[in-house]
Amino acid sequence: MLAAAGRRVGGRLLAAIPAVFGVVVLTFLVMRVLPGDPAVYFAGGPSAGQAEIDALRAEMGLDRPVPVQLMYYLRDVATGDLGRSLTTGQPVMTDIRQRLPASLELTFTALLLALVAAIPLGILAALRPGSAVDHVVRFLCTMGVCMPTFVTGLLLIYVFYYLLGWSPDPTGRIDIFASTPPEITGFLLLDFALTGDWDGWRAAFTQLILPAATMALFVLAPLARMTRASMLAVLGGDFIRTARAMGLPGWRIIVVYALRNALLPVLTIAGIVFSTMLGANVLVEKVFSWPGVASYALDALQASDYAPVQGFVLLMASIFVVVNLVIDLLYGLADPRAVAE
Amino acid sequence: MSAALGRPSLLRHAGWVLRGNLVTAFALGGTALLVLVALLAPWLAAYDPIATNVANAMRPPSAAHWFGTDQLGRDILSRLLYGARLDLAIAAAAVSLSFVLGAMIGAFCGYHGGRLDRAVGRFVDVLMAFPLFVLAMAMVAALGNQVQNIVYATAVINLPFYIRFARTEVAVRRQAGWVEAARASGNGGARIVLGFLLPNILPNVAVQISLNLGWAILNAAGLSFLGLGVTAPTPEWGIMVAEGARFISAGHWWLVAFPGLALMLAVLCFNLLGDGLRDILDPRMRT
Amino acid sequence: MTAKLLEVEDLRVAFDTRRGTVEALRGISFAVPAGGVLGIVGESGSGKSVASLAVMGLLDRAGSVTGGRIRFDGQDITHAGGAELRRLRGAALSMIFQNPRAALNPIRGIGRQIADVLRAHRPLTRAQARDKAVALLEAVRIRDAARRADAFPHELSGGMCQRVMIAMAMACEPRLIIADEPTTGLDVTTQKAVMDLLAGLTRERGMAMVLITHDLGLAAQYCDEVTVMEQGRVVESAPPGRLFGAPREAYTRRLVAACPTPSSTIAGLTPDAPPLPAAPVPATLPPGTPLLLEVQGLKKRFPDGTLAVDDVSFTMRPGESLGLVGESGSGKSTISRMVTRLIDASEGEIIFEGESIGAIPARDFHRAPQRSQVQIVFQDAGESLNPRFSAFDSIADPLRRLAGLRDSASLRRAVEDAADGVGLPRALLDRYPHQLSGGQRARVGIARAISVQPRLLVLDEPTAALDVSVQAVVLQLLEKLRREKGLAYLFVSHDLNVVRMLCDRLIVLRQGRIVEEGDSARVFRSPAAEYTAQLIAAIPHFRPEVVEA
């Protein structure tokens, strides 16, 4: 069983290689189309001498044919060199490493919030189709999909910051005057907890909760909807009828027989939801001035600074591949049929 | 199972569903209203959507300005009405572009299978491995800040979904008895795809289109919210939210709330319509 | 008889549907004594399955008991509450379902599923329940039960899954087991093994059984008493000998006649139908008549490596009908598709009227002149009709493509001729498949295939999805067409009785290879291969003539 799972993961990793490779090449090509000459930027703007620019271009390999440049780029990516950001002046790798925990903390918290809310709601709705609970859940789901994340975020700010004054100034991960914890994991909540600084933890948490809730609301709908639909489908299945015909207790039918089966498609959709969240991060991070990788990439994009954008897209694609791998693995553990395929 | 015949029974069924399902009727009405508003915006709007009037800036909703005015004193309602044109046009153009391309490619791949199918499948996987919204951002940035580039970007990120959708829909039917029967009756590959398979997956695609329109609107608005694509004075819902965002912490809610609401209602109508369509076309799929 | 264990009196069940209330049971009564076996037979729509679900209290939300009474062991359980039913179900009365693989939880080991049942009704520890589950698996003759207890349903064959279901249903020694089409979808040899096991175990343990089936032979063989149902009513009820030997009601008589037996003939299946035309083709053609079809060394290997067809050769003369018989996995359908040129063979020759059609790739065969000469009728008539085509469009399609009919008047005439030929009322031509009955759909499928005047018609289980009475009519139609038009039939079926009636010659297939070939009557009378003998022996039958005597 373990060996089979191992083989499966290995196979999946191998299958992911062309996808990641494609992403790298595609990013490179897209970036080549972008207007602007990096050599001009590096040389200090259009005022720089032509000779200087040409020299830099030669040094950066920009005078070579595109396929050769692609080879160079691939070599750089393979060695972990994503280039240097013009706006921050640091290697892109360093910038990303600094900012990634902020984005991940936000995304994971949001996903957790969404799952905790969506699964029980979906189950309740499925157990009593047509009831008031069902209608409320379906209404919530319909509404949730329709709200653009950036509008939700702004409205939450209006209500909880301006009207109620419950949350702090919605900018950044932590009050600029508060002390940050020593960096252990980069995840503020974890770092505060590890150092036992609970005031700091609460401060970071209040700062996190609005953006996380914004994103959770966005993905709540597909998750709850999927839970409800798959629970309904499973409850109508033959083997549930068998379990009832054999006089199994009601809770056992619902939890052991129905729910475990119903969660399988939810697991699959959770992977898709995660990748949607990676995209939606850009919007939420902008609304809340969240210092994550997405706002970093957006700033770079607006400043025609392409190395960070390239690095960001690559990072997102890799995270996506990893997440899918994890989902696959979990699926393999949860569903014996998956291993057999 | 209806005892009546073909087309009329579909219409009658639709009527039955609409009567029994007020939500779908509402969605249909809402969609029609949206389209009407977009078409008639110049006649409906009381003010010029671009004309600034700083003396009249930041007014909350009133009798003169039902939805208030923005930081430059422009009437929000008028801007919303004109914005409907742009947002709907972008969504419609993007979705039809990706639908036509995607359904064709997907259907042929699904029917023929083989090496081409695998290559396209791999390409779609690569495309979908991107966080698609980020891809759209990069595309608009690369192609330039123009409205048509939002259309292309939105179309491209929708494309893999249509290809995959049409591919699987066709692939599950490829082995169906009636497709084999069509081959035995002397139909070639192209005729089977166009004459048999596409008409059969069309209802499901229609549902998908309706749902995708909502998604496309959200995407386009998201892009312009980030300052990509549509530029400043143009009335567009996403950019209106972006401009209002700066003032939300000061309590000027109407700058954000109304364009936000407009977005929400538009997406809501399309989504409900999609669900309703599914009910009409296949009552068993009811959720 | 002794005291009744289960008594159903004037039971009425109605379903709320989108089109109003539909009465599924209109007052049925039956009873089962302790230890007895009652068969309930009927065609689709007779309400036999609804009756079983009503007894178990398992009707879905839309269905409800609107009248009558169900008494189990003297206790009225017609409107029993959830807790009461839960105590009874699995412990005192239990059920076995059709499609066993879907009826088992796909992600739970079979041993644990049996243990779940045991622990729901008895105070057992986990380990005790598991031991008991293994013992039960042994009782249903699953080899290596201790290891197999950890297997999941998808790792077992359909027959094995049904054994697991039986073990589950018997786990708590119920007094009554309801088996709803327990062997439908299983191969005939598996069916016999499962039914023998089920009947043996219930008898051994003194359990009563209700066997619900569409197969009269099965009911005759395993039941003490048989109840015939039609459209929510009981037609008649009697011991099988009397019922099948001397049916009193007209419906039962028709049903019994329509059921193929080792001695029945096509004409005998539908006694009320007009007589068949005389066979125009002499049984033996003059020597030197060219062969219609010659298949040599046909092989098909699928991309996953399985060899579905392994070196099959046979010939057909014009106007001959040849049967291909086999269980699932025998490769019979694959052969039919290769001959029809819908898929390509991996190896071998297919020669039609002296020309090698096997050499033309399947994807280009639609342009070949032989396309109209070789036609096929598919297994599931409903599934083989384009849902967006009316019956007219479906029949017209090959006429447009292959006969080149373009103008609407001649097209309509040709379609109507074809419809008349298969006895499809012209008024139905405008209908869509979902508006037609199973028999009507079958007729459309046949009309489509014969509209272009083929010389060879491949029939791939054309009646497998039909009720016996409809099957009888369709077989009668096929025989009539063959005699009228001198068509050659390649008839693919799992049903030996049907093949015997329709085919001069038959080929028995097993796992892609030919096991036996010969004259139908001879093979049936004295099979040469042991496998053929097993197949023949496994068919459940009733012999009215024997019962009467």
Sketch the topology of chain B as an H/E string, one letter per element: HHHHHHHHHH
What is the global morphology of chain C?
globular
Largest interface here, residues on each chain?
A-B, 55 and 47 residues
Quick one: biggest sheet of chain B? none
Protein name (chain C): ABC transporter ATP-binding protein
Keywords (chain C): ATP-binding, Cell membrane, Membrane, Nucleotide-binding, Transport
Subcellular location (chain C): Cell inner membrane
Main location (chain C): membrane
Question: Any descriptors?
Answer:
heterotrimer, B: 287 residues, mainly alpha, MetI-like fold, disordered N terminus, disordered C terminus, C: 549 residues, alpha/beta, Rossmann fold, six-stranded mixed sheet, 24% strand, globular, ABC_transporter-like_ATP-bd (chain C), ABC transporter ATP-binding protein (chain C), membrane (chain C), AAA+_ATPase (chain C), nucleotide-binding (chain C)
Describe this structure in words.
Chain A has helices spanning 2-33, 38-42, 50-60, 66-78, 92-127, 132-146, 149-163, 188-195, 198-235, 238-245, 250-287, 293-302, 306-334, 336-340. Chain A has 341 residues and is mainly alpha-helical. Chain A has a domain at 100-264 and 283-292: MetI-like fold, CATH 1.10.3720. The longest helix of chain A has 38 residues, at 198-235. The relative contact order of chain A is 0.14. The mean pLDDT of chain A is 82. Chain B is mainly alpha-helical. Chain B is built from 10 helices and no strands. The two termini of chain B are 19 Å apart. The model of chain B is unreliable at 1-7 and 283-287 (pLDDT under 50). With 549 residues, chain C is α/β, with parallel strands linked by helices. Chain C has a domain at 292-368 and 457-464 and 488-537: 3-Layer(aba) Sandwich (Rossmann fold). Chain C is built from 21 helices and 20 strands. A 6-stranded mixed beta sheet of chain C has the order 6-7-8-3-9-10, with helices on both faces. A 6-stranded mixed beta sheet of chain C has the order 16-17-18-13-19-20, with helices on both faces. Chain C has a 4-stranded antiparallel beta sheet with strand order 2-1-4-5, with helices on one face. In chain C, strand 17 (456-460), helix 17 (468-485) and strand 18 (488-493) form a beta-alpha-beta unit. In chain C, helix 4 packs across helix 5 (126-139), helix 5 (126-139) crosses helix 7 and helix 16 packs parallel to helix 17. The model of chain C is unreliable at 544-549 (pLDDT under 50). Chains in contact: A-B, A-C, B-C. Chains A and B meet through helix 1, helix 6, helix 7, helix 9 and helix 11 of A and helix 4, helix 5, helix 8, helix 9 and helix 10 of B.
